[in-house]
Write a structure and sequence with these properties.
Four copies of one chain form a homotetramer. The first copy, chain A, is built from nine helices and no strands. Chain A is mainly alpha-helical. The first copy, chain A, has two domains: about 45 residues, Homeodomain-like (Arc Repressor Mutant, subunit A, Orthogonal Bundle); about 130 residues, Tetracycline Repressor, domain 2 (Orthogonal Bundle). In chain A, helix 5 runs antiparallel to helix 7. Chains in contact: A-B, C-D. Chains A and B meet through helix 6, helix 8 and helix 9 of A and helix 6, helix 8 and helix 9 of B. Chain B binds a DNA duplex through helix 1 and helix 3.
Chain lengths: ~200, ~200, ~200, ~200
DNA sequence: AATGAATGAGACTTCATTCAT
DNA sequence: TATGAATGAAGTCTCATTCAT
């Protein structure tokens, strides 16, 4: 019985993801993908309509566990502050463990002509909405300042975390995750905390 | 004095930049560039080693005014808080006016095989260092909290501003720059402000 | 068993060889080769790394029968004198039947940047070594003069035969091979014959 | 006053010759020639109709001293045997001192499509005719065997000497010219000597 | 379910030549 | 006499996709 990671599709996903992280979508050829996956070229076109659709499916495939991780994180949190901190931490951990995916997210997100552009944006929106919920909750509870827009702040915090995480992984991967998380926590939690004035 | 060579190069820079803004680097062909520039195809290869080197030169060419803008912004600011706010605003304005460039910065920054990778990284580092200086000044002056790392915070704020700016331009370009700047200012200035505790 | 791949390669070899015979390597385009072979352009690049590698493979492909011809010629000869004469004749026949190849051998042999340079040199060395063996045998048997260097003489005789053969084919192709062979035989066999003094 | 070697044409000749010897006619670009010559690209087209005509003129320029050398060699020789030996030696010396030219002679001689093909062939014929004269003289004098064709033998000896010389310069340049000349002399003089039978 | 040879549109690049200065 | 920017035809090569097996 074939385990999930042995299936042809999954081998193609892994190969495509690691290659696209290294060289980008356009920079990665179908030849390279099938070679790394250890299958023949036609196999891609047997399973998918094309290269772009393979990536689209790959994104969808990796999306569910990510969503679940964020959902669970948000549910487990007792307060908006704790939630925000936990979400940042969850994002950092996810980026650390799915660096290839994260890199792809950042570098391919703004390529509007891509077939899977919508899928990628939906993923991003989904993640941001968890941040937004925590921030909105905090504002409603009076612990976060009310003069910020929850959606804007969520997007900003998400972007800050992603870029910081990539910097971290590229320039100082030896720094423990805790240190990075703490730095972001200080910046982020203060940014939204109420009872202060700019 | 503008030589004929300089004129031609500039026409190629303008054509390439506007096209790359529309379609990305890989999506733009040399044929399109020379057609828009009104020169022959061989002209690109007379002046540059190839398409990538044209873009590299383009980046270098447009880099100086950008650096100057940030330098002047930092110098004109009376206090670290004002400086930080002005830098954010300068970054937003630059992204608005050089959207093609900004998009390229984000999408090509992590593509290590590109010939202009180093140039792009130097540009990014240069911009971030202005943020870092303002933050370090603020920490030294006691107006910014001392438990954050200036370099880390600079990179985080830069990333936050870039992603917010791209979101803005893509999803709600009708929002005035002032509104965006104000939102980021609130988040950013509070994040680093001293006299508060997370 | 001829696979589809082998068939295609052979069509490309035939097309390339006949064209290069007419117009030389640089003068022959990939477009012409694929047109004559009746395949699509991409097929060349599916089977070979490039135009030069196609020719390299072509050389290697046609090399074995040539080597075999020389080997058999040498083995069939009863004495060193007969062997030398037979080798000259074999070389002439081969040049007559593979004029394209022979021309390429002479014109591309000293072009060190070509990818097939090594293959071509190996071919030349292989042919010359047959001459060398016959001459060395003759010297050992006392029928060839002992004051000549077998390797040097082999290379000289080979060169003499090639240049004579090309002259023949270009300037007086109507001359029968026998006449040419007899002229060279007279020059060559006397040159190495013992019992005389310069 | 400009010496002969300082003239623009001569600088172009030297540059072109050394480059063509390295990389062949087609492999050498006009850009490379003018760079090595230290002049601008347009200069070539000011002095010559094109790249091929530059080479044609270069051949003609180097032809006269070569012809003179052979003429003097032949005139100075007292007997046909001495003449033949001296001609071989003259050819070796010339190849040693004009290696680039010699290489070009061998590699470009059979490219029939070249504009200067005729010029090159005339040069070759001119050299061979000196050999032919010496051999014909020897046959008439009864010192060379009468069953060989003087023209054929001349061409064969010339080819043998050229290929031996290139082998020598490429594979064992440390061998003194005298040793090479002596080996060829033994082969050549015996080949044509009368009073022997194949 | 999978293969891999074949395709061909379209990309990048080369380079001999022209010409205004 | 000399320059060098500009040209564009023609070349080599890439690669997503197709399809007979």
């Amino acid at each position: 019985m074939a385990t999930r990671s042995d299936t042809t599709k999954c081998k193609l996903y892994d190969a495509a993801l690691s290659l696209i992280a290294e060289k980008g979508f356009t920079g990665t050829t179908v030849d390279e993908i099938v070679e790394r996956a250890g299958v023949a070229k036609g196999t891609v076109y047997y399973h998918f309509a094309g290269k772009a659709e393979l990536v689209e499916a790959l994104i969808a495939d990796r999306l569910t566990p990510l969503q679940e991780q964020f959902r669970a994180t948000l549910e487990a949190a007792s307060t908006p502050s704790v939630a925000l901190e936990a979400l940042v931490r969850a994002e950092l951990e996810w980026i650390r463990d799915n660096r290839a995916f994260a890199k792809m997210l950042v570098t391919e997100l703004w390529r509007e002509e891509r077939v899977w552009h919508d899928t990628l944006f939906a993923l991003r929106h989904s993640i941001i909405s968890y941040f937004e919920r925590a921030i909105a909750d905090g504002i409603a509870a009076g612990v976060f300042r009310s003069d910020i827009d929850a959606a804007f702040a969520a997007s900003a915090l998400f972007g800050m975390t992603v870029t910081s995480a990539l910097d971290w992984l590229v320039f100082s991967p030896e720094t423990p995750l805790d240190t990075v998380a703490e730095q972001i926590r200080r910046l982020a939690s203060m940014a939204v905390a109420s009872g202060t004035q700019a």
